[in-house]
Recover the amino acids of this structure.
């Protein structure tokens, strides 16, 4: 076995989702000399990636332009996993790692079933040595499990070097993040083989990422860094949201507080916006993963510390729903509430763990009628998420209480309140006077994302409630 880094010519990515799709499309774009094949078990998803009119399975600004250039040149989407694995020198494993729903560690631990299946698949079909890269966010020491599985199940004489290369892109800005990442993190075993594999992957990224942004560390540090990064980002949101509750009770203003605190260069101004709470498939899942890890390591105080970040987030969402009900004269039964935004953040169609779902669930349990509008989320996705959020309510019943609108203005028609649940830019630019005219009076706006001009809305006649201000209404 040569210690020289492999000159990567063919890459396979297992998992054509929010991470595998954009990351490997960008690798293909930036490395025309490498053939990149993204594979998935989900035929519909692959068909969408291959669709002639670029109706891609995920919405991400700039993604279509990348796929347009690279697809069919050196970027391919396929369900033929075996061939793609056999041909590749380097394989990304970018499958989903959701929180376990049942069994040991239910509600906390990551479900590693998909990672294990993908790993076993590689072992079963590989006919040459591979570099296998954990792209999925995984519990610590998953690299070790993958290596054990690969070595126990593959043909004799093959080598598998496992790298950890967690993805730090944020949905909504994925393409910009991938073009100019703050850093690329590659973790490997500190053996000659591990370091050589690490160099092979470094060489791929070095095609467009400045080398001083490519950090190479030990594999366990790399796995923990991904959990740590998400935990600390979410912690920042929970910290500002915890302070927003104090503001509301005292008359302080969270935006002034955030600005003042963020001016301290040690704190920094970013990610200090109070809101209805964070969503997305990662923050909660990765923190719970960290909680589970801490408990497994018999570190209960550490577990309790991180768990509180999630608890506070739940509290923030509940607090917001309660304020909507309280403000609407303590009852929303049979009232029309327009919810603007269903995605978990702006510039994505992704709804996983979206705060909008929690809010709507709360409004429906108060027997309100809800009209939803989101510029990107598919109608079928909204029904799917609401049935999941209300498992005891038949979908026909949900459909009686919920309407899906095509525009923000039509969603607001005849409503007593408009609730902004996602920070889509277009919500700022709505003709709010027209919205006001269609609504019942008094007309309430609840800005769960702090994106609206409160004074301008008041000028029109709205009663406005935002987050973290004591001088409400
Ligand atoms: P996703 O659900 O969008 O995509 C995963 C894909 O893997 C699915 O299409 C699924 O069909 C496919 N898959 C599962 N098992 C497979 C198998 N054995 N063979 C082939 N295909 C298989 O998930 P995602 O959002 O892309 O996340 C993937 C991983 O990346 C997760 O571990 C996540 O924590 C991590 N991550 C996500 C983000 C994000 O913003 N979404 C950011 C950083 C890291």
């Amino acid at each position: 076995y040569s210690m020289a880094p492999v000159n990567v010519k063919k890459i396979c990515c297992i998992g054509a989702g929010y991470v595998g799709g954009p990351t490997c499309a960008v690798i293909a774009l930036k490395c025309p000399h490498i053939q990149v094949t993204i594979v998935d078990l989900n035929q519909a998803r692959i068909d969408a990636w291959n669709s002639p009119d670029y109706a891609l399975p995920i919405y991400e600004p700039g993604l279509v332009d990348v796929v347009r250039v690279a697809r069919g040149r050196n970027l391919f989407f396929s369900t033929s996993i075996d061939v793609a694995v056999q041909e590749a020198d380097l394989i990304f494993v970018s499958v989903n790692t959701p929180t376990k729903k049942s069994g040991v560690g239910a509600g906390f631990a990551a479900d590693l079933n998909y990672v294990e299946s993908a790993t076993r698949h590689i072992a079963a079909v590989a006919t040459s040595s591979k570099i296998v890269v954990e792209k999925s966010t995984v519990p610590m020491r998953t690299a070790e499990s993958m290596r054990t599985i690969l070595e126990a199940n593959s043909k004799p004489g093959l080598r598998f070097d496992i790298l950890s290369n967690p993805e730090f892109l944020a949905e909504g800005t994925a393409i910009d993040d991938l073009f100019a990442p703050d850093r690329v993190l590659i973790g490997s075993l500190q053996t000659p083989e591990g370091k050589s594999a690490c160099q092979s992957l470094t060489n791929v990224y070095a095609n467009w990422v400045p080398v001083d942004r490519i950090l190479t560390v030990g594999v366990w540090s790399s796995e923990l860094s991904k959990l740590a990064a998400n935990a600390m980002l979410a912690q920042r949101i929970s910290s500002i949201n915890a302070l927003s509750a104090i503001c509301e009770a005292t008359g302080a203003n969270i935006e002034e507080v955030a600005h003042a605190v963020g001016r301290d260069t040690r704190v920094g101004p970013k990610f200090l916006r109070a809101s209805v709470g964070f969503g997305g498939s990662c923050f909660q899942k990765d923190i719970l993963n960290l909680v589970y890890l801490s408990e497994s390591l018999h570190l209960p105080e550490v577990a309790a510390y991180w768990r509180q970040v999630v608890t506070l987030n739940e509290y923030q969402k509940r607090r917001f729903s309660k304020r909507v009900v309280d403000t609407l004269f303590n009852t929303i039964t049979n009232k029309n509430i327009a919810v603007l935004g269903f995605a978990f953040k702006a510039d994505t169609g992704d709804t996983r763990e979206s705060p909008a779902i929690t809010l709507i669930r709360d409004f429906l349990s108060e027997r309100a009628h809800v009209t939803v509008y989101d510029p990107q989320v598919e109608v079928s996705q909204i029904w799917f998420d609401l049935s999941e959020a209300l498992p005891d309510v038949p979908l026909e019943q949900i459909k009686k209480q919920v309407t899906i609108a095509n525009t923000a203005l039509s969603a607001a028609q005849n409503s007593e309140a408009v609730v902004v649940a996602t920070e889509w830019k277009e919500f700022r630019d709505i003709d709010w006077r027209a919205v006001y005219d269609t609504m019942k009076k008094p007309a309430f706006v609840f800005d769960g994302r702090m994106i609206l001009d409160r004074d301008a809305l008041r000028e029109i006649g709205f009663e406005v409630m935002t987050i973290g201000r004591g001088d409400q209404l």
